[in-house]
Amino acid sequence: MHVYYRQAHIKQYHKENRALRTETTINNTYDFGIGKRLHNLPKLREVGFAANRRLLEVERLSHDCMITEKTFQTINGPVAAGGQRASGLRFADTKTHALLHAIIVFRLLADGFRSADLRHHLAALCGRDPETITQGAITYQLRRLRLHSLIERIPNTFRYRVTQFGLRVALFFTRAYNRLLRPGLAAALPGPRTVSPALQRAFDNLDAKVSQWLEQARLSPQKT
């Protein structure tokens, strides 16, 4: 694999089919704002090592994501711990979405939050009157969050705090849904627009090519 940046070059290959080797060559030190004299060599080494580490980190996350996949499936599925059970926090589910939005706010509270705080925030996010949400429903939502390790109870109190894991899950789920899934589908699917966006045109071209290929392969239904 070859990666280029200005006059710098990263080459990656398998050395004698035994080990992965990553070589970085910097042909012009001014590409990184560094002079050419020998005393600048440590700075150049750091730039090269940093580039190698970033490339390897991207490859690790892209090709060895089994832990992340397991975590995602665990969050979306039911969980049981200590004789208690709770349903999964399904991605893009409206109730789950509101619940995760609420705990993002609670992460900013130094002394944690109470069940009453969760009730008021959920009611506002769902467009409901807080009085219509029972205490049993709030207790159930708290148990879901706790068993999935998104929140933890503060010892000797009736307050809860959002874990670091819970904050990252809530941020990723809500941002991915709000900023990627919803606008992406709106751009890709056909709709009453005067001008089709680039993503929709790309999908239309792909659909046309696939249909053409099916016709050529005679896999499409024959017209009578």
Describe the protein's topology.
Layout: E1 2-5, E2 8-15, E3 19-26, H1 41-63, H2 66-76, E4 79-81, E5 84-86, H3 94-106, H4 115-126, H5 135-147, E6 151-153, E7 160-162, H6 164-188, H7 198-217
Antiparallel strand pairs: 1-2, 2-3, 4-5, 6-7
Protein architecture, described:
It contains 7 helices and 7 strands; from the N terminus they run E-E-E-H-H-E-E-H-H-H-E-E-H-H. With 224 residues, the protein is an alpha+beta fold. The protein has 3 domains: 2-63, no CATH class; 73-177, Arc Repressor Mutant, subunit A (Orthogonal Bundle), CATH 1.10.10; 195-224. Strands 1-2-3 form a 3-stranded antiparallel β-sheet.
Low-confidence stretches: none
Rg computed from alpha carbons, rounded to a whole number of angstroms:
26 Å
- Classify the beta-strand content into a percent band: 5-15%
* Structural domains: how many: 3
Task: Name its key features.
3 domains, alpha+beta, single chain, 224 residues, two-stranded antiparallel ribbon, Arc Repressor Mutant, subunit A, three-stranded antiparallel beta sheet
Quick structural overview:
It is built from seven helices and seven strands. With 224 residues, it is α+β, with helices and mostly antiparallel strands. The strands form three sheets. The protein has a three-stranded antiparallel beta sheet. Strands 4-5 form a two-stranded antiparallel ribbon.
